[in-house]
Design brief:
This protein is mostly helical. It is built from two helices and no strands. It is about 90% helix and about 0% strand.
Length: about 80
C-alpha cells in the first residue's frame, strides 16, 4: 500500500506545482525549479504505475490459471 500512498501524494504535489506554474508572480528561477521538480515527480509516478501494472498483470494471470483449473476439475466429474 505504500506505493499507492506515495502515488496519491505525488499527484497532489504535481497538481500544486502546475497551479503555481500557472501563476504570473513567480521568478524565472522559481519557475525553473518547480518545472524540474514536476518533471522528476512525473518520472517517479510513472515508475510507480509501471510497478503496479506489473503486479496487476501477475494477479490477473494467476486468477486466469485458477479459473482454468476449476473448469478442468468441473469437467472431470
Amino acid at each position: 500500500m505504500g506505493n499507492i500512498k506515495l502515488y496519491d501524494e505525488g499527484i497532489k504535489r504535481l497538481e500544486e506545482i502546475v497551479h503555481r506554474l500557472e501563476e504570473d508572480d513567480l521568478s524565472l528561477e522559481e519557475n525553473i525549479r518547480l518545472y524540474e521538480e514536476g518533471v522528476k515527480l512525473h518520472q517517479e509516478l510513472k515508475k510507480i504505475l509501471k510497478t503496479q501494472e506489473g503486479k496487476l498483470k501477475v494477479l490477473k494471470e494467476e486468477r486466469e490459471e485458477e479459473i482454468q483449473e476449476m473448469n478442468f476439475l468441473e469437467t472431470e466429474f
